[in-house]
Each structure stands twice: as C-alpha cells, then as structure tokens.
Design a protein that fits this description.
Number of helices of chain B: 8
Distance between the termini of chain B: 69 Å
Order of helices and strands of chain A: HEHHEHEEHHEHEEH
Shape of chain A: globular
Largest interface: A-B, 48 and 49 residues
Strand order of the largest sheet of chain A: 1-2-5
Radius of gyration of chain B: 25 Å
Strand content of chain B: 5-15%
Number of strands of chain A: 7
Helix content of chain A: 40-55%
Oligomer: heterodimer
Number of helices of chain A: 8
Largest sheet of chain A: 3 strands, antiparallel
Helix content of chain B: 40-55%
Radius of gyration of chain A: 22 Å
Largest sheet of chain B: 4 strands, antiparallel
Strand content of chain A: 5-15%
Strand order of the largest sheet of chain B: 1-2-6-5
C-alpha cells in the first residue's frame, strides 16, 4: 500500500468534490422543469482572468476587494481552489403561467420587454422569470449542500460569478454564480484571517459608522443630531451629510470601470475560444 | 428516575387505514421531519444573511383538502397550468404535511444593490418605477392585482427563496422523506392566507409512504388515482355482492356448488 500525505490527499480531493457538487446541482428539484443549467469547473491558471477582473474592480467595491483578497491569499500560498460556475439564461419564459411576479401581466409581455431591454446590471443580467430564478438558486443550493456534506468549505459568491461573466465564462447566461471550493480548512470563507492586515481597526469603525449611523446618533430632537464619533463627542460635533459623488469620485469610478473593460477585452477571446473548440 | 420509568410504551404504526390512529402516528414522524426541513430552510444561505423568510406547516385531512380545492379553483383560471394544478391537487391529498415557505421582503424591502436580476440594465429603477413608493420606501397597502402575484418583485430576494426551499428539500432527501416543491401549492397557500406577509410562496409536499406520491403519475390523474380507485371499489362492490353471482343465497344454510360436485 502506498503512503499518501494527508494534506496532499485533501488538496487532490478538491477537484473530485467539485465534480460531485456539479452533479448535485443537476439533481436539484425544479419548479418549472424548464431550466437549462450550465456548469463549469475552473481550475489552475484558467482562474487568472477571474482574479484579474476581481483585482481591477476592487478599488470601487469593498465586497469585490474582500473576496479578491481571500482567494488571492490561498492561491499565492499554493493552496488548491476549484471554482464551480453555475449559470442559466433566466430572461425568457416559455411557461405561460402569467403569474405577474416579474411585473408584467403575461409571460408574452415579459418576453417582449426582455427582448428589447435585457442586459447586465451590477452583478447579473435581467429581466428574470422569478420561477426559473428559483430553480437556478436551487441548483446552486444543492451544489453547496453537497460540498457541506463532504465537509469542504465553499462560499457561493455573486462577485466571483460577475468576474467570471465579465471575462467571458459561460456565455449566454444572464445569471452566473461562482463557488470557490476549498482549500481544506475550517470556516475559511468566514474567519478570513488573511484579510486582517488590509482592514485596520479604523476602517472597521468607519464602515460601521457609515452603514449604521443610528447606533451612534445623539438625541435627535434638534432634527439635526450629531454622530457620537469619539469619546468626547460633544466637542467639535460631527454630522451626517448626504450628497452625490464628487467629480473626483465619479471620475475614479469611470477610470476603474475603464480598466475593468480592458481586462474583459483582454481575456474574453481566449476564454470564449474554449467553447468554440468544444463545438 | 421516575421520568424514565414512564419512558416506555408500544406504538403500532401502519399507513392503513388512512387517518387511523396508526396512520396518524406515522404522519407525526413526517411532521417532525418537516420541522427539521424547516430548520434547514431557515439556515439556508441568503444574500447578506438578511432575515426574510416565513413559513407555515399545514397538516390534517380538512386542512389539506382546503388547499387541494383552492388549487382546483385556480386550475380553471389558466389553461397552461390546468392539468398540472389538477394533478398536483391529488398529491396534496396524498401527502402527510405541507411546508409553505415565503419571502416577506421581495415586494417591500428589496436588496437595493442594482444587481440587475429583475430588470437588467435598469437596475433597481425597474422595480421602484413599477411600485408605489416614496423616497425608496415601498407602499404595499394597495394589494389589488390583476395577476395572481403582484409584481415586480426583487428577484435577488426571490433567488434567496430558491436557496431556502432547496435546502428544505435537501434535508428531506437526507431524511429519506419524499418531498417536492410546487408553484401550484404555494400559490394556493398564499391565496388561503398562509405565509401572510409574503409576496411569493412555494409549497413543499412531504410524505413517508411505500410509494413516492410525486412521481409515476398516470394520465388524467385527477380522475384516475388511489382515492378514486378505492371510492369506485366501494361504489361497485356493494352492488357486485348482490348481482355478480346472478342469484342471492342464504349463506347460513347454502353455498353454491362447483359443477363436478
């Protein structure tokens, strides 16, 4: 009997388990029986386009940055991650249920609107048939549940799906989710120790103040309450203001999106060619 | 010690006759499984971990009949779902328990992330321009609707409901309990007032029987099913007793003889 290093074995198991998760996704029950699920497992250097997209968009999206830092750390350490992509085109309904949940009186009207107006939002595309959306979600859920039963950490990430869609993976899907699988470890996508250095205490505090100001709000009787932003908050009181992004901020967003588009342009031909070759 | 001295007993369990004491004991275990499925649903991953799910457990002959009849009412409102709804109403009657799961944020408190699922490039404006709202606070008090579900909904929230019911189904499969999610059951339940705060509801039927009641369905299932078969047996056999042998006899003193006797 050969001897196998346990850590190596755990590493090698990632790809096998990713395959079983893909199989579980197809086992998921459907409400419509009409969902055409598309899946793909991206490994090794083929993950580079996704990582590069992540990196470029990170400066304007803390969520992208957070997930990018997490995955980058694992890859740089030589850990094994498989990215399971699950996508579907949700922008067409052949159901004829006319349920109204999408906002249109009939599936026919939904399809008409969709034909003329579909396209990407910030993370996914639309419009979507809500019943097909739930079938797609069920497939993602079954993949994650399978991974959970094998005790392999994973996290379904809209950010990862968006980065994959942006660089040409699974063309034709209006919605795409990416599930980084592994490396073996405990709660690695939740207790992200490696993210500590890039987010100092002050950043945590500022984010909390910005997102939950009510918690630090002084007596609001004046209708212009100050925020208790320091121990001696009553001195040089600080207030919330709201305003559109400044010209500098807007310019930064536009410049970043320009770089993101460059990344997309760079990678789409090669990523797409894989699908062409398969035909 | 006393507590454990009392922890003894005998329970007879059988699926027949339906709704007998032994059948109700059997159903009780499915209801327990449904509670565990509900747990799985409540811990399902949703965007941002935001609480947004409510549930109703419904079981009992009268309660299930009410849901089945609502589905039959709905069947005649749309030709495209008529056959499906009629077939699935039979399954409701054959189930042990119904688990309704609804999302109470999809119409009122969206994800607000401009994700694009509901309207594509229009982002959240797709939903907000089609709903009554002030400063982004959606007014849901006008519940009148020309469609069975009043849309549009936040599809990111609906997507989360997908994770939720799929997790319930996963748990059912792990527990070897037959279960299947239905749009028809959910719609009927919603109209009966189950999951009262939800914009969209999915109904999961669950059963612990020798034969999975949600697969291998024959043609015209609403006319040809176990319930109808049994009822037709009851209807005919009383007549057969009187007529099939062509003549009645006094069982205490007579018995028909075979030809050779």
């Amino acid at each position: 009997m050969p001897r196998i290093d346990g850590k190596e074995a755990a590493k090698e198991s990632i790809i096998q388990i990713a395959k079983l998760a893909a199989a579980a996704a197809y086992k998921a029950p459907q409400l419509t029986s009409k969902l055409e699920l598309k899946t793909e497992i991206v490994t090794g250097e083929d993950q580079e386009p996704i990582m590069e997209f992540y990196k470029e968009v990170a400066p304007i999206s803390p969520v992208m940055y957070f997930d990018y830092e997490t995955i980058r750390h694992f890859l740089e350490k030589g850990e094994s991650i498989a990215i399971l992509l699950l996508g579907a085109d949700l922008t067409f309904s052949e159901l004829g249920w006319d349920c109204g949940a999408c906002g249109f009186e009939s599936c026919a009207e939904f399809n008409k609107y969709s034909k003329e107006n579909k396209g990407p939002g910030l993370l996914w595309g639309g419009p979507s048939c809500v019943w097909k959306t739930m079938d797609w979600a069920a497939a993602c859920d079954f993949a994650c549940a399978a991974l959970h039963q094998y005790r392999i950490d994973s996290r379904s990430m809209a950010t990862c799906g968006a980065a994959a869609a942006g660089t040409g993976f699974l063309p034709g899907c209006s919605a795409l989710i990416g599930i980084p699988i592994g490396p073996p470890g405990e709660n690695i996508y939740y207790s992200r120790a490696q993210n500590m250095p890039v987010f100092p205490y002050e950043q945590h505090r500022e984010n909390l103040l910005r997102t939950s100001p009510t918690n630090w709000m002084a007596f609001p009787g004046s209708t212009k309450p100050c925020l208790k932003t320091k121990d001696n908050w009553w001195e040089n009181m600080e207030y919330i203001k709201w305003e559109p992004l400044s010209e500098t901020e807007l310019k930064f967003v536009q410049e970043t999106m320009g770089k993101v588009q460059e990344v997309a342009k760079k990678h789409i031909p090669k990523v797409s060619s894989w699908y062409e070759d398969k035909k | 010690m006393e507590k454990f001295d009392q922890l003894r007993g005998e329970e007879y369990i059988s699926d027949w006759p339906q709704y007998s004491a032994q059948d109700l004991r059997r159903r009780d275990a499915t209801i327990l499984a449904a509670r565990l499925c509900l747990n799985a649903a409540l811990t399902a991953p949703v965007a941002g971990g935001v609480p947004q799910i409510e549930a109703h457990l419904v079981y009992g002959q009268e309660e299930q009949e009410k849901v089945a009849r609502k589905m039959e009412d709905l069947a005649y409102t749309n030709d495209r779902w008529k056959r499906r709804f009629l077939n699935e109403a039979v399954m409701v009657r054959e189930s042990d328990v119904i688990l309704f799961l609804g999302n109470y944020r999809a119409h009122e408190t969206p994800l607000d992330a401009n994700c694009g699922l509901c309207g594509g490039p229009a982002g959240c404006s797709f939903l907000y321009t089609r709903r009554d709202q002030k400063d982004g606070l959606i007014d849901i008090t006008d519940r009148r609707s020309d469609t069975p579900i009043k849309g549009p909904l936040c599809v990111a929230r609906v997507n989360d409901l997908g994770y939720v019911w799929a997790s319930a189904i996963w748990m059912a499969q792990t527990l070897m309990v037959d279960a299947k999610p239905f749009m028809s059951v959910g719609l009927a339940g919603q109209q009966l007032g189950y999951c009262p705060n939800s914009a969209i509801v999915v109904g999961i039927l669950m059963a612990t029987l020798a034969k999975n009641p949600y697969v291998d369905i024959n043609i015209d299932y609403h006319l040809v099913n176990m319930g109808k078969m049994i009822d037709n047996t009851r209807k005919n056999f009383v007549v057969n007793r009187q007529t099939a042998s062509g003549i009645n006899f006094d069982y205490q003193t007579q018995y028909p003889k075979k030809k050779e006797e």
